[in-house]
Design goal:
globular; mainly alpha; three-stranded antiparallel β-sheet; 152 residues
Length: 152
């Protein structure tokens, strides 16, 4: 366990969400694997660079992201996203907020994915289905889901 925290990684993901939104999920997976699967430090720039490159970002994109990480805009966006999660009652991750019949439903924990799918009218096919069929990609539409861990 690292005592340095995850702030650099969260700022990087926030910058990615602004510059290259399609890379948020692959980068998040790479960072998760680095810290929990490989026991690597995700606070060091070299580790973050390796994760970003492995997630499919180019070297020039990574350099631009590191420039953005220190900006007020990225810091404010992360603060706003964090506050939004707190407003939903977040106390850990994964936290997902889904619009079910026009109202937000909060789900905490990976053991709630099957229940979340049921509430969305979807069949739960496991954590990594070969062919994604669930409608969890767009924000704030009824019957769809926003994963707060990935908004960052």
């Amino acid at each position: 366990m690292y005592e340095k925290g995850t702030l650099p990684a969260m700022r990087l993901i926030t910058a990615v969400s602004e510059l290259q939104p399609s890379a948020v999920e692959p980068l998040s997976r790479e960072l998760w694997t680095r810290i929990w699967g490989l026991d690597l430090d995700i606070t060091e720039r070299q580790s973050l660079t390796e994760a970003a490159l492995k997630a499919g970002l180019s070297a020039s994109q990574v350099e631009e992201l590191f420039r953005l990480v220190g900006t007020k805009e990225v810091k404010d966006k992360l603060k706003s996203t964090t506050q939004e999660a707190i407003d939903y009652g977040a106390f850990g991750f994964p936290l997902s907020v889904c619009s079910v019949k026009g109202s937000p439903e909060v789900f905490f924990g990976s053991d709630r994915f099957e229940l979340m799918a049921h509430c969305l009218g979807e069949k739960w096919v496991g954590p990594r289905p070969d062919t994604p069929t669930m409608k969890m990609r767009e924000r704030e539409r009824d019957g769809e889901c926003v994963n707060k861990a990935s908004l960052g």
